[in-house]
Amino acid sequence: MRARPEDAGEILTVQRAAYVTEAQLYGDPFIAPLIESVGQVAEAIATGTVLKAVAGPRIVGAVRGRLTGTTCLVGRLVVAPDRQRQGIGSALLTALHDSVPEAAAFDLFTGHLSEGNLRLYRRLGYRETRRERVADHLTLVHLRWER
User: What is the β-pairing status of strands 71-79 and 49-55?
Assistant: First the structure.
């Protein structure tokens, strides 16, 4: 379901909880998802496609998409730590594919050490397109899913 601007605070809370393990994995507490503000999340909701997964009254996951030409740029796929490995991430990405039918392709990236993320994306049909070394401790793996 689509996120609303008033969901920004709760989505940011889930995002921070989900990205703590990534920050620990790469030894970097200043990764963008952890230092983003609630205003920036609200702006993403207002200007792109942001979907949320809910369990009762609680937001347990979210994903962002922004259409650029015929490609949807996917970002911030997050699932609350206590709800991971239950299919929520897969469901969110599939829902994003359905929510942006005009996109011919979906691009995303993750860190080279993020094996769980890489497994998920590959299982859903994403294919690696390139690797980009951005720091001594981090190489980004870029992936694409095409219709």
Answer: unpaired
Name the pairing type of β-strands 105-111 and 71-79.
Answer: parallel
Give CB contacts under 8 A, 24+ apart, made by 30-34: 33/76, 33/78
* Angle (CA) 49 43 84, round 5°: 55
Coil vs helix vs strand at 145? strand
Q: Are 68 and 62 in contact (CB under 8 A)?
A: no
Backbone angles phi, psi at 103, to 5 degrees: -80, 130
Structure tokens at 89: 């991430």
Tokens for 70, please give them: 């015929």
Whole-angstrom distance, CA of residue 130 vs CA of residue 140: 8
Strand-pairing partners, residue 127, are 144
* 3-state secondary structure at position 73: strand
pLDDT tens per residue across span 89-103: 999 999 999 999 999
Residue 137's pLDDT band (boundaries 50, 70, 90)?
confident
> One-letter amino acid identity for 24?
Q
